[in-house]
Amino acid sequence: MAVPTFVDRVTLYVSAGRGGNGVASVHREKFKPLGGPDGGNGGPGGSVILRVDPDVTTLLDYHHSPKRRAEHGGHGAGGRRNGAHGSDLVLPVPDGTVVARPDGTVLADLVGAGTEMVIAEGGHGGLGNAALASKSRKAPGFALLGEPGDELEIVLELKVVADVGLVGFPSAGKSSLIAAISRARPKIADYPFTTLVPNLGVVTAGDTTFTVADVPGLIEGAAEGRGLGHDFLRHIERCAALVHVLDTATMEPGRNPVDDLDVIEDELRRYGGLEDRPRLVALNKVDVPDGRGIAELVVEELRERGLRVFEISAVSGEGTRELIFAMAEIVKAARAERASEVQERIVLRPPSVSGDEFTVTPTGAGWRVRGRKPERWVRQTDFSNDEAVGYLADRLNRLGVEDELVKQGAVEGDAVLIGHPDDSVVFDFKPGVDAGAENLARRGEDHRFTEERPAASRRRDIQEHMDDRGEGETRADVARRLDRPDEYGPSSYEIGSDEDPDALGGVTDEEAWLEEDPGDR
After folding, report:
1. Which residue has the higher pLDDT, 500 or 284?
2. Full-prediction pTM beyond 0.90?
3. How far lies 389's CA from each of 340, 392, 393, 450, in Å?
4. Cα separations in angstroms, 363 against 80, 344, 357, 366, 416
């Protein structure tokens, strides 16, 4: 099996890097075991970028290695250390590469050195608990997971960027002509289909420099795939002009330059998109006696069609200079016209699921929620952590998902599916209930940091009673009296009142003596 040296169409599988996970960590040091959350964020994954490289002329590398993957982002760490960024993967492509989906949808047309496109974006890194901390959520016990990067299948198709394209039957002398007018050295032989790949040559005519493409020979039926023309007709789509190279000295019976021109024009018409290109006609091989005679017979007929005709010889160079300057004239006019056009800046963005932030659709399996934000949040959630699940519920509720479900008739216990049908996360619908003052915080938040701790309340009570302490009493005495009021009594009282420990509340002295008599105990 022959190893290809020129490839102009490949199917490529690209995968961007996954974002690193955030980390839940608590700062600890001597005398400060709970110093607050300090978990770092995960690093973003690397993206896959297509970049035009003038030194690359074929897609051969991707023919041999059709799967490419960027680097993953690093995970976060304690001490507010963020994960490393995943390295981007830059794929060099030839000038004139068209990027499309397998269904034929064109994503980009990469023309010009340095032009680049992010074809697969790396996943975002997950936030650590330090970034998730807030006034009401002071110590999150969870972190967000990193998002997976984009994965897709694309088709790269090379369309040679040339100013002039040479078209004609096999062995018409196209390769000889491009070798005569430029430094290109294509393979030349006396049998059909010598040229198997497009050849490019740089031609200079006065102050105009342009490129000429030698397209492999066309035959009748090329638009349907006969011969090699079907595979290479795309390489003349960008040309500003087409030059018909007609063989005036062919030995094949039944052929003549006019019929050859009609056949090629019919194939170009059936291929489509080339009707507006200026045409030049080069009657080649006039150095052969029979060739010159045939050229003289057909030249007037071709000119009557409105075509500019040149009698040339790629071997001797006769007529090639006039042909070169005619090409340059057309190229110069085409460049001036393009320069006057205002180039529209094209921004490629992934299509959204819908115009809204999310949609809720009833299905046989349950209520399906689709949207970029809900699906992204689900991918970030660690479902092994109850607090993280509560945080997800809060985010969905603030987005309005819960209200929309209730509005469409969802009841508690219904199945809610978030994501694509092939990769959904299923929940049991449980709408939140606003309980007034008892609803102290949102789901997923730590109530321990929003309610007052008993120790703080006790210190406040002690401080309030410090002004009522007796002579010689310390703060500890005040604390003991508050903890055991029956044993220590009040700190201040009115003599003779019910709070006076020396007054027994109206009992007689005898009763008091009997009560206090240790013998009766």
Report:
1. 284
2. no
3. 57, 5, 6, 20
4. 44, 42, 19, 5, 10
